[in-house]
Amino acid sequence: MRHTPHFLMTDVDEVKRLVDGNPWATIVSHTGAGLVASHYPFLLDTSRADDHEIVLVSHVGRPDEVAHELGRHEVLVVFQGPHGYVSPAWYPPEQFVPTWNHVTAHCWGTPEILSDEENFRVLGELVDHFERAMPSPISLEVDEETARRTAKGTVGIRIRVTRFDARAKLSQNKAPEVVERIIAGLRSDGPYASPALADEMERAHGLEER
Predict the structure, then answer these.
(1) 163 pLDDT exceeds 80?
(2) Within 55-115, where are the H helices?
């Protein structure tokens, strides 16, 4: 990412919050055949991490594990949080250059290939994680035999993040009154409305309780 020190996000807990709230990620591998990218949901593996670590679990559908050469080298996993266009209509007249606010994390690590049993457990946790928002959650236990047959088409992975580069670009370089106008614009019914991005800006600027 572009080197922007004043937007750096260095708190491990903040990166974990981003991952937990935005689990759909992009995996990028530099393989012998060139760059390969795929998209899968990730969960935080809290059972394998201490407070200062980020450990991710997911799965890929076969044959992506071959295409990515998983386990043979480091991969990059990109998490994208709320983002959106910021119009100069929300700035003072003399500030006419727009921007794009975003919360993003790049995480690096070498995948560990999970056993079939552990992969099935992680698949179950993924399903349970997303089903918990449903009125009547459904789990793989509904038909475990069929679920296990389906799981054979996937390969589970665990990635212990060895380093990350994260940004929370949320108009920290703007005056408080301009920040409030941007938030109001994001909460409007205009073409660039983004309540989730407005929430992130309020959090970053300490405006949640106002």
Answers:
(1) yes
(2) 64-67
Q: How far is CA 45 from CA 50, 56, 187, in A?
A: 10, 5, 34
The pLDDT tens digits of the residues spanning 13-22 come to 999 999 999 9
Residue type, 61: G
Considering only the C-alpha atoms of the chain, give the largest distance between any 2 of them, rounded to a whole number of Å.
65
Considering its fold, how many domains does the chain have in total? 1
d(CA 78, CA 104): 7
* Residue 187 resides in a domain: no
Confidence band, pLDDT 50/70/90 cuts, at residue 209: low
Token readout for 45 is: 């593996």
- Going by C-alpha positions, the residue among 170, 210, 164 that lies closest to residue 15 is 164
In a domain, 37, yes or no: yes
Mention every residue, 6+ apart, whose C-beta is less than 8 A from residue 36. Answer: 28, 29, 67, 68
Q: How far apart are CA 204 and CA 198, in angstroms?
A: 10
Pairwise CA distance, residues 93 & 88, whole Å: 8
Place of tokens 């990166």: 15
Provide the residue range defining the domain that includes 13: 5-173
Nearest to 43 by CA among 65, 73, 21: 21
Cβ(123)–Cβ(148) under 8 Å? Answer: no
